[in-house]
Amino acid sequence: MTYGFAGLGQMGAPMARHLIGLGLTVYDTRPEAMAPLVEAGARAAADVGELAAASRFVSVMVRDDDQVHEVVSGLLPAAEPGTVIAVHSTIRPGTAVELAGLAAPYGIEVVDAPVSGGFMGAQAGTLAVMVGGGDDAFARCERPFGAWADLVLHVGPVGAGTRAKLARNLLHFVAFAAAAEAQRLAEASGVSLRKLGRVVRHSDAVTGGPGAIMLRATTAPLGEDDPLYGIMRHVLALGEKDLDLALELARDLGVDTPLAELARDRLADGLGLLRKEIP
Questions:
Q1: Measured between alpha carbons, how far is 222 from 143 in angstroms, rounded to an integer?
Q2: What would the pLDDT profile of 126-163 be if each residue is shown by its tens digit?
Q3: Of 57, 40, 239, which Cα lies nearest the Cα of 138?
């Protein structure tokens, strides 16, 4: 199989570099973005049509929905039937479904395959990729994705990959806002923010951070016979105690902590525990 890669920015360039040696053609509107990959052994395409004609599997990593539409619309007329187009950009879930519908008359399959792990993961080849698409298309994704990812998951039909990415990024950026709240409390308490950051990174690397509680198959309340029930009860007891102490400190120092207050109010439900059933 021959591979193509469109979009050689901060993420796309290191991802594409892992495919050199597998018959890679690249395209970017900026010739200077293609040059290092060409020097390393890739072939440069003059436009997306030439990229499609040279490839049976094309990855697209551009900025937004409009750019994805533009690139895929240029690929479709020139691509051979049976080609797979993988969109790695974070877009609206409906965009992936729409593009799959546009591609079907050409005999081309579109998968949405957003990634998680940032520039560092792209460089190291340790990204996670969430794939939405048919079984046959996913089977063809595993080899190229495995070149730059060490977690390749088929999460459902077209659009499911993007829905998973949006849920994952909701956690990511809400956690950033919570981190800012924690820093305000620490700063008001006279605690070094850099040292606090070291503690957070160290302990999250050990415990898994928020992902450590993402073990349930459903958000429905846990039954008392569920093996996770006792674990979540323990998490709740510690969490409510520690949040109460942090909120008391915040009140004493006059620090606004709305996320912590919301967490205190919703922690039990979030852990699958019905508040009225907890002594």
A1: 39
A2: 999 999 999 999 999 999 999 999 999 999 999 999 99
A3: 57
Residues 260, 266: Cα–Cα separation, whole Å: 10
**165 a catalytic residue:** yes
Q: How far is CA 198 from CA 109, 195, 203, 228, in A?
A: 45, 5, 9, 30
For residue 32, give both structure tokens: 């200077």
Query: By three-state DSSP, how is residue 217 classified?
Result: coil
Catalytic member of 165, 195, 241, 276: 165
The answer to whether 129 and 145 have CB atoms below 8 angstroms apart is yes
CA dihedral 26, 32, 37, 41 (to 10 degrees): 90
> CA 73, 52, 135, 130 torsion: positive or negative?
negative
- Can you state the angle between helices 258-270 and 227-253, rounded to 10 degrees? 170
Structure confidence at residue 279 (pLDDT): 57
- Using CA atoms, how far apart are residues 80 and 57, in angstroms rounded to an integer? 10
Global pTM reads 0.91
Q: What DSSP state is assigned to residue 92?
A: -
DSSP letter at 223 equals: P
